[in-house]
Every structure is written in structure tokens, then in C-alpha cells.
## 1
Amino acid sequence: MRWSRSLQLRVVGTTLVFSVAVITVLGFFLVQQIAAGLLQNKERSAATLAASGLTLAESPTAFPAIAPASPAASDLMYKILIQLPEETNSGGTGAAVMINRSHGKNADVLGWYKGPYRLGGAIPADLINRVGADQQSRGNREPSSEPTSFEPTSLVPADGGQPVPGLAIGVPVGTEYQLYYLFPLTQEQQTLALVQRTIIVVGLALVFLLAAIASLVTRWVVVPVRQAARSAQRLSTGNLGERMQVRGADDLAALATAFNEMAASLQEKMQELQDLSHVQRRFVSDVSHELRTPLTTIRIAADVLFASRQQLDVSSGRSAELLQSQLERFESLLVDLLEISRYDANAATLEPEPVDICDLVRNAADVAQQLAERRGAKIEFRLPAGPCVAEADRRRVERILRNLLVNAVEHGESRNTVVTVAGDRDAVAVAVRDYGVGLTPGQENLVFDRFWRADPARARTTGGTGLGLSIALEDARLHGGWLEAWGERGRGSVFRLTLPRLTGTEFAGSPLPLGPDEADLATAAGAAEAVMLEGKGTSTGSIAAPAGSTAAAAGSTAAVSGD
Amino acid sequence: MTRPPETACRPVRRRLAPLALAACVSVAAAGCATIPSGGPARSLSQPQNEVTQGDDFPQLIPASPGKGWKPVQIVSGFLAANASFAGSNAVAREYLTPGQARTWKPGLAVTVVTQPRFSPAAATLPHLIGQSGTQTQGVVVSGLELATLTAHGQYQIPSPSAKQAISFRLKLMKIRGQWRIVNPPKRLLLTKSDFLRVFQPRNLYFFAARGGTLVPDPVFVPLQATVRDLATDLVSALQQQPLGTLAGVTHTSFPPGTKILGVNIEGPGAIVNLGGTVARAGPTVLDNIAAQLVWTLTSPSYGRQAIKSVKLEVDGHPQSLPGSVDGVELPSRYSGRVPRPVADGGLYFIGKGGAVQALPPSQAAAPPKLVLGQAGTGLVPMTSIAVTPDTGERAITGTSPGAGQRSIAGISADGRVVYFGALTKGASLATWRPGGRITSLSWDTSGDLWLATGHGVWLRRPGGKAPIAVDVGQLLPGERVTSVRIAPDGVRIAMIVRGNNGAQLEIGAVTLGANTASIGPLAPIGAGIPDPAALSWYDADNLMVLARPGSVRAVLEEVPVSGGQPTPIGAEPHTISLATAGSQIVAGLRGGLLVTLSGPDGSWEPLGRGQDPAYPG
């Protein structure tokens, strides 16, 4: 959703909501205040008018003592009414002089009224009662202390038309009479309407202006942040030369500067590491090469010694034998190291051609077959009837298979080794099964590490170079295939090589399972673990779990030496 | 190069920004908004259609019947509530039984009474006999009738001889425990003071039969709070033919079948929208209608001017009459339609040696001059002179004086002979003995000479024809006309009628035939004037009457012809004669001194020696 992604949108939206709320509240109070002020002004002028009317009504000449219920009272009230001062600036005030109803209960005439509004309902009954109560409680005090009462009312024009809001004001006159004024509030209403219209227009304009300002301000912040995010992303994809633009000296410039410093530092460290690694690889490669020449000389000398060992005494002969075997081992170690250093230098190249994997299996099994026969075991082949063709580098795949078979025979505890080949539309697989000591949990991954040994105490003299499975794994990877291992203590192990039919294409899964075959399904626990491991192997792809106990090293040595 | 993190403050600052901005804007706006104390002058359009101050009429606030009021209180309250017209006498109806409240239709017919007295009396209601538990009660209302107002607004005071005491019995019955009136009077009953507060005298103007002049017809109209109601009432009355003393001798120019579509007040003017047959009327008729409307609606007689101008519309279309300004008819355009006595002709009086002298107008400092002709010689001694009002009119002498020439008439010292003749050089006076003692004479605008003698009223028309005995219809046996004054419009005639019960001021309308003349229904006016003797038209609506002539307590009374209350004006002692015209008042004192009322303080100042002053007319 855009709302949650865009900071700018959120800020603008929030600003809109808050400013609308603030302006609404502000406008409401403003209108309220103005309305109160207008009304107060009106009340003040009304009170002034009422006071002057009162002065007139209470002057002794205009207000002789007349019994309120007498006919002369009507004359008196009429006389007062027509003499009352009028307000000329507010478009028609109404005035009424009335007898206090509670006193003049029996009067035929309550008073006289003059004004452009209908009298009925114009003077609220509440106001009349209040003025009456004031008058009674006041008694005969000084006229100056006349309490003036107000009440809003609704005035209907005498010739019909819409009622207008009005203000009724009442004041007691003497002890018997009351004076009322009616003021229309049309002007005040118009003023208020004008103010309201203005506030609405200004408020709307202000809200949009604020939103625009917020948008602009946020943009100043958001655009550099977005740039920083893009730079960081590019940096994370390996583009270590990525830098941010630094503008000005504000907070964002500080961020950009810090980012750039971080990137520079990162790039430096990476470069150092790369250089170091490069030096190391060069060193290994150089050392291997440099060792070859003296080794060849030593080899020739050792061969001479070995050939003439019969003529030497027993101990010297034995030394010559030992020398010979260790030299072989040294040579193969050198070869493996050179191979590994080629991988490390990314110098290994693939020469793929369509080959029949079954042929490769049979070729690779030759060495292992002899080894197995020496130990009194056999290698069983479970091959499909037809050819199983895949695009592969013949030399490398043979090396992988030789390595796996020799390992299997060496760790097979003189039991038979089973090689199974299968293929499907996308991939072909070779599984090498032995029934030897097997692997402990966790060793499935370790077997592919360089110079890893299951039992460190085992003498270096026996076993291979410790690099065979590592090289096999690199070869498999070079094909875009997988090399995985399964093993269990006492139940042997399985190494499975899966290669795509066409180099570099993807495949979903291996045609063969990784784990004990049907014959071993007697034990449920083993089966369960095998299934689990198979899932793991499949999902982890080429980072496979090796088998390889201590004997694996020796096996691989043999395989390598055979190469 | 590391800086303290400011990210924590930033959102707060951003959220505060709108608030701060809003506050700044409001403060700035408030600071800028000031009332200007200077600037260029501008014109301001008049606010239209606003209720203007002072256009409202006082209205009575009547009391509704209280709980447990006694019958006398109910009757008294009912009569007081008669003065309130709001909601068609809504409060007065509360005093009636429910049936009467629905059917009572008093209209605008009014009986004006003195403060009435109430006395309880027994009353039986025949149709209620036999219904148990129904209480009835009667109240006798008694008082003096001062006047009546017809439903059409004519104010009539009873003649002195008529019986003035009235008394009638109101019956009451109890409705749900409260007394209510069963038989309300057919007319409204108002005290004089209430009547004068809730009715206002106004003039309707109708056309005289001849001369195209407008004659005011005074009526009383109820004050219904707003000017619009008043204007509507007046226009409705104009639509009909006159109904009072002017009936038959004047007419309205509204064609029969004219409808009043609306009367509205806009600003200081009225918009009268007429329809019906008036749509086919010609421009002359419309002009006459406009003249009637303008005079009737804008007349300042008797009270405040209701409006200042009139717009005439026919079927909603504004009529632009020739001479009107933007379709607005102003009173000034029709001012000549209502003739009034003016002082332009100068003052005539009898000077030393019985010679008639003339004082030119507006030249008070100039000495009076003897008039031309025989009247100025003093050889024919005269009392009580009269001068023709209009110049260039036909005169009864038959000598047909030229422009600027007037005729004069005078009564001989013994009161038996009338001398009359032109005021031209060498003109001689003719004599006329109508028989009986001549008490008064008056010229009208047509050059007719009116006489009052002990035996009646005579008219001598111009062209030397035989005098006509004027038929004054309504005189009772023993009554005689002692004084006549014909109004400047030639239609109305004011008279003093002396009977057994004293003298009474009467006003009537003149109907002239080829050889006949009559004075129409007489309406008594100026109630309560003691011993009226001399009279004069003060203006078109008021008479000036000299009461108690010659005595120390002589007084002038300004009498509205509407029948309203006369206004006394203090006079010098021993005033015996009077002449008025256009706000000029000249009085003759016993002993031959002329005084004039001048100055705002109402003081009399001597004008010169002489007697029997007369303005033309």
C-alpha cells in the first residue's frame, strides 16, 4: 500500500488531518467569540437605550402616580411609548410598555406596543416573569439600580416573512410598569455570516497551503533519504564504488558523508582481504610448482634406491620403500593442491561433451574393482538398460566417480559396494553405497572440507591427501550439479552425484534418493533419518553433506594417485 | 564529523509547523484588519426594502380574560380589547362564548363613547331556560356617544340636538366556570382616547365634478402596525366611489372593474399594482389615477406623511406617465390639483372711512393702498367684505374684468344690502337685496357669490342671472345658517348653523344644477366649540373658527374637517373678525385694530388699523 510506503504521503496526510482539525477548532472558537462579542455589543447598546427610555419613563412629569388598573394607566403607557427614544441604526426596534402582570392582574389593558414585528411571542414569557420577579424583589429602591434582563427571541415581521433572530430586553419601571425593547439581530447575523464565510474560505486555503508546504518540506528530507537507500542497495549488491552526493552542511549532508566514509572503509577492507587471499593462492600455487622440480629429482633418486633395495640392508631397504611411498603421496598432494589452487583462482574450465555416464562409471570402477578384490569384496553395478547420456567433462566426472568408489571400497569394511545410476528428463545421478562404518551426524558436511579427517589421530601416512572430496565437490559445482552425502554410524554411507543433462541448466531434483536402499529399510529409525536427510540434501543443493570417515582420506588418496 | 542525532526532534518540528503557521497567519490577519480612519469619498447606495424607523403604529396589548373574573371585569376587558385589531380582534373574541367568537363580525364600524360605566343587572337568556346549572348575568354599559365611525371610515359626530346617552345590556353566561359574553355589540365600542390611538385620519382624494380638482374626503383608517396595511386600505377605498359627504359630487377616476393586485412599500415609496379594466384605460385616466394615489398616499394632512412617492404599475408593468421621474410620481407634480387658500392675493380690509384697502403680500413693510373702483372710495360703507379668489375669472358684474382683476362683495352696514363689483379703476358697485339680514358671504372659484341670510342661503351666479335659493336639506326647524365659507375646491362648504341649542359647525358638499343648488348631507364637525361665530378655510383640511367673538375669552379653533378634535389657538381679547390663507392668520379686534399671528411663539403683532380683514376666497 502506498500509504505505508511513502513517508511524504503520510506526512502530507497527517498535516491535512491535523490542520483541518486545528482550523476547525480555531474557526469554531473564533466565530463563537465574535458572536459573543457582537451580542455583547448589542446588549450594551440595548441597555443604553433601555436606560434612556427608563429615564424618560421615570421622570416625574411622564410618570405620575396612577393606579395601574385604572383607565388612565393605558393613557400613561401610550404616552410613554410614543415618547420613547428609538434606536435608528439597527433597522427597526420594537418597544412595549406594559403593566407588571403580577400586579396588574385585573387590568384590561396590559400595555402598548410599537414595532415592525408581531407582538405575539416576541417578548418571551420567561423574560416577563424575570422582570416581574426583579421588580418585586427590588421593592422601592433607587431607580438607578434597575436590573436589566435580556433574552434572545425570534421576531416575525408584521407583514409576514421569515422570522429573524432578535434580542428582547426588559427593565422594570417604578413598581408597577415594565419597559421592553425588541432588537432585531439581522445586522449581527449578517456580520457573523460574513465572518463564517471568510473563515471557511481562508481555512480551506490554509489547509491546502499547509499540505503543500508539508509536501515541499518533506520532499527536502525524503529525496536525500531515498538517494541514500538507493546507494546502500547498490553497495550491498557489491558496487563498492557507490557514493552519495554531499550538498551543504546540514544533517542530510552529515548522513551522506558518514555513508560515504562507511563505503570507503568497507571498500578498503574488502580490497585488503582480496589482496591477501590472492597472495595466499599465488603462494600455494607457486610453492606447488616450485616443489615439483626438486621433487622430480628426488623421485628419480628414490626410484633408483627403490629399484636397488634388494641390495641394501634390511633397514635401508625399508627406508627406500618408505621413501617411495611417501614420495608418491607427496606428489599426489602436490597435484591436488595445484588443482585446488586452480579452482581458487577461478582458472578451472569445463570442457563439456555428451557422454554416457554408465561408461564413465565402468571406467572409473576399474581401479576400485582391483582394490575391492584385494579386500575380498565386490562392486555391484545397478545400471539402466540404455545409455545415460549427459553433457559433462569426461575427465572431471571420472575423477569424481573414481574418488567416490575408492573411498567406498576403502571404508567398506570388505563389504560390497553398490553403484546405482539413474536418469530423468533433466538430470542423471550416480549413487555410491557402502556398508562400512558410516558417518556420525554432522559429518555429512565436514567430509567435503579440505584436509578434514574423521579421526585426527590417524596417521598421515595412511589415507589420501584430504583434498579428494573437496576437489570432487568443486568439479560437481563446475557442472552445475550436486554432490551430497548420507551416512549413519554402523550402517554405511551414500554419496550421490547429480548432474544436469545439459550443463548449466536447472533441475528440480535428483532421480535417485539419498539414503539407505530398500534392503536397509528394516530399521524404521534409519529410514526416517534417511528421508530427512534426503530432504535436506535436495533443498541445500550443491552444498552437500559428505560421508567419509577416517578411511575416506585414504580412499581418496588412492583415487587421486590413480589420476 | 559525527553530529548528534536530530531525528528525534524532526517529526515534532514538522508537526508543529502547521500550528505555528496558522497562529502566525491569524495574528497577522488580526493585526492587519483595522477600521480605516481615512480614504477617498465614495457614494453609498441606499439600502432598499428595509424597515424604516418610525413607520410603526402603536398597538394595544389587551389582556386576555383572567380566571375567575367577575362579569363586570369581563365586559370592561372586552371593551378594552376592542381596540386591538391583531388577528381580527383575536383577544376580544376570547371574551365571547365560543359560538359568538366564531360569528362576531364587528368590521370597522365604531361607536366612540366616553369612559363607559358598568352596572350589573339581571339577565335571562330565553333559549337557556330549562338547562339546569347555567348561570347568566347581565351588565349594563352606559355612557355618552361622542361619535360614530361608519364602516367606510366616515367620522360622524352627533348633532347637538341628538340624544347622546347610550346604554345597552350585555348578557353573560358561564362557560366552564368562566363568564363569557353572549351578545356582543355589532359595532366596536371605543373610548375617545383609544379611538384616536388606533384610528388615524387620512384623506382620500376624489375628483370634483368640474374643474379637474381633487377634493379631500377625510376618513379614519385603522392603524394595523405597518404602512403597507395602511396604504392597502387607502388604495382599496379609492377604488370605490366616495361614500361620505362627497358622495355624488365627486368621483373616482378608477374605472369600474379595476382590481388591486398589490400594494408594496419599497424604501420611501409605494408601488401600486393595478389590474382588471384599468389595463384598457388611456393615459389621461392613468394620470388621474396617479394623481389620486399620490395625493391620498403622500398627503401630510392630519399626520405624518406615510410615504413620499408612488410608482404605478398596471398588471405588473411600471407605467411611465408623462412628467414622471423614472416612473416615480412625486407629490410636487400634482400639487396644483388640490386648491388651497393662498395669501398671494394680498390682504383686503376696511380701512379708515369705510374704504377698502389692500395690503400686498410678502411686503409687510409696504403701506396698504386703497383698492381701485368704488370700493376704495369709502363712499359705500361696508362691513364683512369678500374678494374673489382667482384672477381672470368671470364675475357676476358682467363687466368681465381683465386679467389680474378681482371682484369684491360687501355687506352694507345695516346688513340688508350686498354691494358687489370689480376692483378696477372706475368700476362701480352693484347692489343686491336678497331679503333678510345678511350675515355672511363667500366667493367660490367659479365666481359664484354665496350669501347666508336669516332666511337661508342664496347663490348668485355670474352672468347676471337671477339668484338661486340654495336647498340646505338637513336643517331642522328653527335652525339657520349664519355663516358660509366655500372651500377653494368649490365643492365643500363650511357653515355655522345656529339653532335652539346653540351654534354648530357643519360641513357639506355643493351640488349645482342649471338653476338649482343644494348642499348635500351635512356633517357636524368641531364638537365642543363654544359659540362659533366667524370661520375661514385655513388650508384644504382645516377650518379656522373664531369662538366667543368680541369677548375677553375669544379663541381661535383650528378645526379639522375630518371631524377630529379642534386645536385651540389663543386669540387676542375682543377679536371679532378673522381671515386666514396659507398659514397667515389675521384677526380684527373690536376698536379697529388688525393683528396677525406671527412668529413661532404664537404671539399676535399689530398689522395696522382697520377691520373686517379678508383674503381672496
## 2
Amino acid sequence: MRHLLSAADLDHQSAVRLLDRAAQLSVVSDRAVKKLPTLRGRTIANLFFEDSTRTRLSFEAAAKRLSADVITFTAKGSSVSKGESLKDTALTLEAMGAEVIVVRHGASGAAYRLAHSDWISASVVNAGDGTHEHPTQALLDAYTIRAHLRDGLGDLTDLRIVIVGDVLHSRVARSNVLLLSTLGATVTLVAPPTLVPVGVSSWPCAVTYDFDEALADADAVMMLRVQAERMSAAYFPSVHEYSRSYGLTDRRARLLSEHAIVLHPGPMNRGMEISADVADSPRSVVVDQVANGVSVRMAVLYEVFGARAEISPEGISHV
Amino acid sequence: MTSPARVFDADDIGRVISRIAHEIIERSRGAQNLMIVGIHSRGVPLAQRIAERITVIQGAPCPVGELDVSMYRDDVALRGARPVNATHIPAHGVDGQVVVLVDDVLFSGRTVRAALDALNDIGRPASVQLAVLIDRGHRELPIRADYVGKNLPTSLTETVQVRVLEIDGVDDVLVERKASA
């Protein structure tokens, strides 16, 4: 795995291997010494053109637990505001010794461009590109679901997972559909017709507009954030109406089967896609998701650095 | 390329495990705060067998653990990512214990170096000893074993393969000349 650009880069075997590795690495967070010397002296650059709290902090924590040096770049307060391009910024980071670049960008395909343009020889990990993909989020969601419903072992065969909300603008939804179906789960998307992306029929999942119907036999419900900042048109009449049709309200939470868990990639719009009581209920695993993110990203960084040793510079770019 | 020579069979390995168990007890004067820790992957079943022998001889259970050192290796840049295995240390931890590390083959010494670092991050043992089934020489670090099953002088063009029942379905040790040599 030279780069991690899309959840589709992972086949069943490599996805399970990454989750297993993350599980072994998670033990480190319980030790007194929360550090492994594995990537000592190596440099990772966090290149964040878009705002982020947990993804950036999580990648930083993961890199530091593996003893790597981290250079963090955020677009605000940098020369991007003077008009510096993605290419020049990446060249700058590589010139400072970055071997792996973790990139978040508002444009879909930015990570792919960086990885396949011959600008740089560093490996690229996609930390979210526009409305396209966010593969490490999908990995940490799969890890969290596996930990709660499969005792942390194997894959997700026969689990029914419902992803609800603003699918159109969600990179989390796309990466999750790809990864969860690779791992054997049955995925159903629930969204208002205006927030279902074009071409969804080619995705490995079912689509429905009826949340109540999808809830009944769900093992896990993943609520998506309504991304007001990406919305250029009126996709639904009002917050209240959205919440009533597609929000995980207290009433809907009571329809869930006893073992079902609730996920949210954060940040949550409490009262909109998820009610405050559900967000704080025992079935909510939002805080676990954040903790698991560090272990999963450690596994990804280890894998990507390992691949730099295994293949020649002109070698294969995917798993 | 010649066919592999079998230097140990299952009975030889059984006798060596038994002797090492006795030596460990002798040196530790009764195995009070002893802990046997196997290094992944083939050190783990060997450690379990040694601990079982000590338990039988002493009549008191001997704690056994397993240690994964892949995250402590110095060759991630050269050899790539390796599978990460579980590290299990008995609940009371390694602090103040006499830890006997167990591995199948002692070669460059780099695995043992990594294991010492890994152990250091887990706690502070009273002392650390090393038991190996085969010592094949060619050390690259100032490391030696306290308990050795067999000293096996080898050339660098040979490979030494320890096979254990739990992983390979058979107990033996093979020496083979590398195909490329």
C-alpha cells in the first residue's frame, strides 16, 4: 500500500489486516509508555487545506505514537492565502524531508492528483478530499463496528448498517459504503431525494427514503453531518422538517434493536441529525470512534512506510 | 542446492526444552519471581513448553507471556511492514521479575535488541535472561544467550529453520543452503 487514496484501494484481506494491526497497536494507548520507536527519524507532513479538528489531531497523535516527526500545515495563516498552489506547497513539504503527506483538501481528487502527478515521490494518505472520499474515517468506523458487534475479530459479514443523512456532500458515506461492503456488511443509505448523489445505483448498497423502515433490523446506524457549508441550494425546507424525517430522534432510537449502536463522524449538529439524548446515550459510540481513529491511523502510517521499503520508486501504487 | 539436513528431531527438541527448564530453575534458585516470555512467532510455543516443564518440576505455576517486537525493529525502512502480533504479559507485569526471553534462533541479535527495548517500555524487570533453541553465530550486536539448546556453526549462505508443532505441524530443525548461493 504505497498510498491510501480511496477505500476502494483496500481489498478484503488488506482491510482485515489493517484492522487487526490497529487492534494490536491500540494496546499501546493503555500502557504507561504510549510510544513505539518504529518510525523514529521519519517525517510526516499534515497538509490541511480545510478545517479539521479530530482528523488532524488524530493523525498527529498517531504519528507521534510511532515516534515520527510531524510537520503540520494549515491553509489559514500560510502562503496559500498569498496564492501558493497545491503543487508548490507539496514540493515545499517534501523539500523539508516529508516522506508521507497526509492531505485534506476541498477539491475532490486532490489526493489522487498529488499521488499520481510525478510532482513528488512522497506517499500520500487521503484525509478527506472534497465530497469524494475519507478512507481512514471508514476504517475507524469499521473498526468501531467490529469492536462492538464482532468482538474485534474477522470481518463484518451479515451485519446491516444504515447510513443516514447528507449523502450527497459526504465523503464519509462514500468511503464507508465501499469499505463496509468489502468487509461483507449490507449497507443501506437513507437520505432525502435531494441529497442522494447521481450515480448511486452503481454503489454497492441499497437506497431508501424511509428512515423508520430501515431502522428496524439495523445493527449499526451511522448519522452523517448536514454539511451546511457545502450546500449551494435549498435541499430541504427547514431544519425542523429535516430532523423529523431524517434525524435520529428519541422516538426513532426506541425503534432500534437492543444491540444496535449509533455512530457519527463528528462534529455533530445536536438537535438536527441527532438528538442530544441519543448522542449521549449508551449506544452512542462517538467517543470510541475518536479513540479508535488514532490506532487505525497508526496502522495506516506503518503500512504506508513499510510499502516504501518494499517497492521500487516506479513500482505499484496500490495494494 | 542440496536437500535440507535435519539437525534436530522432535525428541531432541523435547530433551532440550527439558534441560533448559532445569537450568533456568537451577540458576534462579527455585523460580520465585520468574516469568518466561516468548518472542513471536516461534519463541511463543517454545516459551509455553519451557513454562509447562518448570510448572511440572516445581509443582507451582510458572507465568508465561508473549512479546511482539515488530514495532521495535530497526529495519522497517529496509524490510517493510511486518504482521503485528499480540503482546501478552501476565497481569502482575514485568516489574521486579526475572524475565527469561525465549526465541527459536539467535543470529544477528537484532531481534533480541528489539525485544529488550519492547520490554523496557512495558516495565522494569529485575533482570532479563535469554534462552534460544539454536545459536547459529554471526552476531552483529554484543548479545549472548544464557541458555542454548545447540550451538550450530553455520555459514551465511545457509538458512536455519526451526519448525514447531503448534505453527508448522512438526517439531524439527532444518539447515539448508540458500538456493542463490
